[in-house]
Amino acid sequence: MNSIECGRFIAQLRKEKQITQMELAEMLKVSNSAISRWETGEGYPDISIFPKLAEVLNVTVDELLKGEKIPQEEKRTTKISNRKFNNAFIGSIVILIAAFLIFVAITYASYRVWYGVIGFVVFSTASILWFMFSRNEVLDLYEDQKDAKNQLYHRTLLYYVLLVTFFVMMIPQMIATLQSNIVTSVLRLDIYLIWVVVIGLLGLVAYLIIQSLHRDETDHEGISIFRTITTQDYIVIYTSLGYVVFALVFNLFALIFPLGIPFSIFIAISLYHLIAKHDSRHVTILRIISVITAILTLILTVVGQLFSGSSNQLLIILDEYIFPIVIILSVVVLSILSIIGLIKKSKNHEYDDYFRFYRQFLMLIISFFTIAFIGLHSLYIINIFVSLLVSLGAFLIYEHHLGKLGS
């Protein structure tokens, strides 16, 4: 990008639209001298300003970077190539997902892991070839188009993360077969599905980390669904992942695995807001009480299951009297406060720290009872998946959406 050509192009477009430097500066919320420096080639606009600048001047970001308008024929060629690559990208990912499903289907239909591996290799190879050929066709075309080039980078990253994730998902099955020295040996389906969830979350975390590390270099926001990932979203993802791994490693902890997911997420979120001092004094007190209540609930569940029938009087008193009374009173009081407070805050459009705490606590209660109700009528493995879906749906997707109200 040549600063003089870019500046001359900005000045030309501004004059064509009969906009003064001061008017353009007000639109972009920059100083008048900044516009002057751009147009004389003494500096560049900040990369975050380019999209707004392009919109005001009615050109594309690539045209601004190039310093001239791109001919219509070239735009048409680029548009066709983009459509072809988008189709190839989506198609190759669909084939890749199908390849893994074929691996699972063949493995559990024939009880021969290596048959499933062969099926995965065949279909994934077709997917890789299609993606690579389509990618290579647009590499030269995107050479001078920074935005398109960055989008190509992020799609390539997502594809390779998916490929590696699916391959890692097969490793436990291969290890089980090799260690047992029996050709028809496979992991139990419920155990394998838990590991698939764990490895899938690891793949998601890997993608988010790599994307965040390269965001400054690429000046691109990545795939749209991950554009506004917040610190709290990362905490929810890491907590869910860590909880699942911890529960699988320590079997005793798995006794409260399904119900413990929303509790662990809520505790982690609350600790984050307490440490970051995002809340007022009163909300901080409410958070501390709610965290203690959540921890006591987890302890009570463990004590109740591990020491049922115990002759220890202290454990009996804690299990049957003290903990239940404290928990019930705390939950009832906090629930009533949260419901009344949430209605009042929503009615007055006050999306402050109180509103944030109220909705998070109510999501914990709703998630808990939803998981508990479904758990009474389903298999353990189904309850685990329901717990993950409900918890992540409440604290990641819905909470992320509601969190924008206060921003």
Task: Give a nutshell description of this structure.
With 407 residues, this protein is mainly α.
Provide structural commentary.
The longest helix is centred in the first third of the chain and has 39 residues, at 72-110. This protein has helices at residues 3-16, 21-28, 32-39, 50-57, 61-66, 72-110, 113-139, 146-180, 189-218, 231-249, 257-276, 281-306, 313-348, 353-375, 380-403. The chain has 407 residues and is mainly alpha-helical. The protein folds into three domains: 3-66, 434 Repressor (Amino-terminal Domain) (Orthogonal Bundle), CATH 1.10.260.40; 72-223, no CATH class; 231-406, no CATH class. Helix 8 (146-180) packs antiparallel against helix 9. 79% of the residues lie in helices and 0% in strands. The chain is flat, with a radius of gyration of 27 Å. It contains 15 helices and no strands. Mean pLDDT is 76; it is low at 216-227.
Categorize the overall geometry: flat
Strand content: under 5%
Which sequence of SSEs, written as H and E, runs from N to C? Answer: HHHHHHHHHHHHHHH
Structural class: mainly alpha
The helix fraction, in percent, is over 70%
Number of helical stretches of at least 4 residues: 15
Q: Characterize the main sheet.
A: none
Q: Report the uncertain regions.
A: 216-227
Distance between the termini: 35 Å
Write down the domain tally. 3
How large is the radius of gyration? 27 Å
Number of strands: 0
The mean pLDDT is 76
List keywords for this structure.
407 residues, mainly alpha, 434 Repressor (Amino-terminal Domain), 3 domains, 15 helices, 0% strand
